Structure formats: C-alpha cells, structure tokens
Predict the structure.
Amino acid sequence: MLVLDDAQTRAALPWAGLIDAVAHMFKGDCVMPVRHHHAMAVPGERDATLLLMPAWVPGHYSGVKVLSLFPDNGSRGLPAIHGTYLLSSGKTGEMLAIIDGGELTARRTAATSALAARLLAREGSTELLVCGTGRLSLNLMQAHAEVRPLTRIHVWGRNPEAAAATAEAARLMGLPALLVTDLETAARQADIISCATLSSQPLIDGGWLKAGAHLDLVGGFKPDMRETDDTAIRRSSVFVDTLAGATHEAGDIVQPMKSGVLAPGDIRAELAELLRGSKPGRRSADEITLFKSVGAALEDLAGAILAYETVRGGASA
C-alpha cells in the first residue's frame, strides 16, 4: 500500500495535470453521496468541523476523505486543516493508498478555482487579488497563474504581517506578488479576485468590481460564512461547483437565496454543465462572473487517483 506525506502528495500533483484531472472527473460518471458534516465543540474557541467525503468511479476507484478544520489553529501556529484520504480499488475494495488530506484538499481546491477561471475569467486577465493568508492562498496563486498570464498578484489579509509573509513566500516561488493594505483599491483594479478566508462578514463590496472581473469565492463552507455581499450577487453571473453543495452550505449563496436576492434559477450553471457544454459560461468581455465553491468529494478522488498513478507510474486499480 502506498503512503504519501504532504511533500510527496504535493510532488505528485502538478498543477496542469491536476486541473485537467478535476475537469475530467466533473465530466465523468463519478458517484458522490452527500458528505457528512459535523460541528465539534472546542471549549473556549470557535467550533471545529469534521467532514467525511466519499466518492467512487464504479469498477475503478473509490475513496473517502476524513478532514477536520479547526479555525483557531492559527493561534497555535498550526494549519486549520488536517486530514487523510483513503484510496481503494473500485473492483476489489483493496486499500491502495493513504494520502495526506490537507495537501490534497489545498491543491484540489485551488485547481478547481483555476479550472473555473479558465472557463469564466476574461481572456488576457493579468491582475489577481488574493484575500487570505492561510495555506490555500499560495496554492491559489500558483493555480491561477497556470491558466491566465498573471503579471501582478496582490495579497491582502487582516493581519498585514501575515500578508507580507505570504507575498514574500509567493515571490520565492517566482510569482509577481506584492502586499496590499487597501483592499478596496486593489479590488477595483483586479481582473480576478480569489477569496480564501473564514470570514462571517462580507469582505468584497460588489460595487468595487470592475467590468469583466471574475470573483472566486473559496473560503466560506457554512451557511453563516460570507465573503461578498448582495451587490456582488446582483451584478454578477453566478456559477457554482455543485448546486447541491452550494445551495445548502455556502453562505454566499444560501443567504441571498433566503432573502430573495438570488433565486435558484438565477444560478447560471454548475461546473459540470460548463465543462460538458450544456450551459454557456462568460458571454461578453464586460460581464462580471462569480464562482462559488464549497468543495466536492469528486475533486478529492480526482487528485488521489492522479497522485497514486503518478507515483505508481500510471498503474490503475
């Protein structure tokens, strides 16, 4: 049985291959039951979240991710996300691999955002604004740079020191990243805005979005979390990774639906429909597009299969 730690998982998931693997899985016949989502009390701190996410491709592979998110881990110098992925044969049930779930989650999440940007962001987009300084931020910069010719990346965070450190880490990777402290000015200039925070209050004012902008909302995964406001919803063509997930778990979708700002029929498409060509994506250069993801188990399975087959030299179950 293969066991991959975080560094080995990272090495086995190159961006171009991972983005394509996620696209292939969204277009395919992966079975994805509703994930288990449990709140766990942490005395004196915000609640943690336990996720169990199964998926399988009949006759080929099956897998499940066990993931925990402890939002106050930053105060301990620890990542918010810890997890493990268990990959098995879809023919025999034999365990094939144990893969670092935190690294897998960060990379497949960023790959999905980049895939959406490849479909929705305006051609020639060169300026990216990343809101957030957690583990996912660097992944988002790398992944978006894979699909659009970025010449400037701005990094904003509530803690300027953390944002400066994130920008410096990105520069060491060869990315054109700079710290910004004026969020409004940076948002007004950006071609693509990617938010990866645990905010419960909107960070991005929809009035800041310029014509042709693409807004990528990654962080909020519960109904009481939100990274943008109703104005952004009204001004944007709204797309989601999965309707089932986004309309039940994402505050950026659930809250405006509850208030009547967004009707179910206003959501233009989910990612699978864009990839299959059954629904259109961006329709004009001036259109503002908004993509909300909450994560899907098929993304994890796509990444786990890619990692396993990369390390095993193309072996399959």
Observations:
- The mean pLDDT is 95.
